[in-house]
Write a sequence for this structure.
């Protein structure tokens, strides 16, 4: 096994070296004075003509089949905002409070009207001024092409007058500004268009010069940037799907920043040559139960799974303490967080009794239970681009096996096409930032309702639907939190989802890198302040 693992890592290392060599002729590489085809390291250099940095990332849009930076495409807005290309009208502070960004403020004359004033003298990387007309064009295209945004924002009409945009919604949307701050809300220049590769012109400190889906993104300084001069002339974002390869690339100096490194490799960088930036986030690792599955539709099986997952063991042993066990979808730091709900704890003895009582018996002594001739075997679907997910599968396979549940793991990059076919899986393990808007409604409307875009397991609860309708009309923050707590408890009582852990997000960089700061929402990574000496 060890020889096979090292061989795999060596092959992956050769691949990243080839990618890095191929980058030498790109615009960012030319800015650093690199000659095409030299084969030299593409890591940051400054030779008087320009300074560049290489950012290695294992998580470049694993949700998309064709990763790009077009915010109007599925979840590509994450890459657009993370990598400094796009910005939103409002953003989240370090305490996840809404604050103006491209906007200078807003007024709300009634509960369906939002009058937003834009900052002046902001230009897209294309050179066009960002005014009300440009924002109107962008948002109208967004709701035409992005189903989730259309459902969230409920925009009826947009009018523009100079630096003012007036938006009317079809009904009250209390979390409207929160939704506008979602990465899909990046304001882009529709006159400049969207290239075939998914490149757009935003207002951020960097502009994309080239994109090879699933391989790399080339960024150059946005000379029109409005909020301070970007420190770097060029950045290459590399998609590195193997965490060990990412580790070796940082060790060898091939990259300057690593995001998504295996926790087991952190000690290699705990010295003066490297810097960590970390923070707790609402990215949650959790299980979706498939209510179309004959096995999972048995409430006893769902309850046993919920009690058969050793969350603390997973976090402390396999994650090395780089996370914290979850009760519900939201961390304790939120007013509607996990401390407000009651989740089932790890109790393998009780789980076995529940299964016994429901008729699941190991009649043949092979360690796996059966009922009416059906073997208690669950098909566990997940994906490898989030390093925690295969580890979670490993942990669950062991602890659920101890109570008589066989777990067959399918960890594949093809998970997006498979999860839409409920005949092919029983439990789906994924990672998601559950409160990217700082508001609880996002998680429920995205995942748990009849109208949700990604209700993967086809879960339904009448009371949940009624509370969600009430939440959508409630403006008072305390009342929204109270409703969210009730809604979470319904999910937990139904064992519709099992929330395993929240992420302690870390990026590791060379000590010379400055201006890199982890943020609770996991959005803002490449900024104008990012630099390397």
């Amino acid at each position: 096994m060890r020889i096979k693992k090292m061989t795999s890592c060596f092959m992956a290392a050769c691949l990243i070296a080839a990618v890095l060599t191929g980058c030498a002729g790109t615009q960012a590489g030319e800015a650093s004075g690199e000659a095409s085809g030299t084969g030299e390291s593409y890591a940051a250099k400054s030779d008087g003509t320009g300074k560049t940095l290489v950012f290695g990332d294992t998580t470049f849009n694993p949700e998309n089949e064709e990763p790009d930076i077009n915010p109007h495409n599925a979840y590509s807005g994450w890459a657009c905002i993370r990598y400094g290309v796009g910005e939103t009208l409002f953003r989240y502070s370090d305490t996840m409070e809404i604050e103006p960004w491209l906007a200078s403020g807003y007024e709300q004359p009634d509960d369906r009207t939002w009058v937003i004033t834009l900052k002046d003298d902001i230009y897209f990387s294309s050179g066009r001024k960002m005014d009300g007309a440009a924002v109107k064009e962008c948002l109208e295209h967004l709701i035409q092409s992005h189903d989730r945004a259309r459902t969230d924002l409920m925009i009826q009409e947009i009018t523009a007058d100079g630096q003012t945009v007036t938006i009317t919604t079809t009904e009250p949307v209390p979390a409207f500004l929160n939704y506008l701050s979602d990465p899909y809300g990046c304001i882009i220049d529709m006159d400049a268009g969207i290239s075939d590769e998914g490149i757009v012109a935003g207002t951020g400190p960097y502009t994309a010069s080239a994109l090879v889906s699933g391989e790399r993104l080339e960024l150059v300084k946005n000379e029109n940037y409005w909020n301070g001069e970007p420190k770097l002339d060029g950045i290459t974002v590399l998609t590195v799907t193997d965490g060990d390869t990412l580790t070796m690339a940082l060790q060898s100096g091939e990259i300057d920043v690593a995001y998504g490194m295996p926790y087991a490799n952190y000690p290699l960088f705990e010295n003066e040559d490297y810097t960590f930036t970390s923070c707790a986030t609402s990215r949650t690792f959790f299980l979706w139960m498939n209510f179309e599955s004959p096995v999972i539709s048995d409430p006893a099986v769902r309850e046993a799974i919920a009690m058969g997952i050793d969350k603390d063991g997973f976090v402390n042993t396999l994650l090395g303490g780089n996370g914290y066990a979850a009760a519900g979808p939201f961390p304790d730091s939120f007013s509607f967080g996990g401390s407000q709900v009651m989740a089932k704890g790890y109790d393998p003895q009780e789980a076995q009794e529940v299964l016994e009582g429901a008729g699941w018996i190991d009649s043949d002594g092979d360690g796996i239970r059966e009922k009416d001739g059906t073997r208690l075997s669950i098909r566990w679907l997940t994906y490898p681009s989030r390093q925690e997910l295969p580890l979670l599968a490993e942990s669950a396979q062991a602890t659920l096996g101890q109570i008589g549940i066989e777990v067959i793991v399918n960890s594949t990059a093809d998970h997006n096409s498979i999860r839409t076919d409920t005949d092919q899986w029983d439990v789906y393990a994924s990672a998601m930032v559950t409160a990217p808007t700082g508001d609880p409604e996002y998680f429920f409307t995205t995942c748990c309702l009849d109208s949700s875009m990604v209700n993967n397991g086809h879960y339904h609860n009448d009371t949940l639907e009624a509370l969600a309708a009430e939440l959508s009309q409630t403006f008072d923050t305390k009342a929204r939190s109270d409703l969210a707590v009730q809604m979470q408890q319904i999910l937990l009582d139904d064992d519709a989802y099992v929330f395993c852990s929240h992420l302690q997000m870390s990026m590791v960089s060379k000590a010379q890198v400055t201006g890199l700061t982890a943020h609770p929402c996991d959005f803002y990574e490449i900024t104008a302040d990012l630099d390397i000496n």
About this structure: The longest helix spans residues 2-22. The chain is about 30% helix and 25% strand. Residues 1-15, 18-42, 44-48 have pLDDT under 50 and may be disordered. Residues 111 and 172 are 5 Å apart (CA to CA).
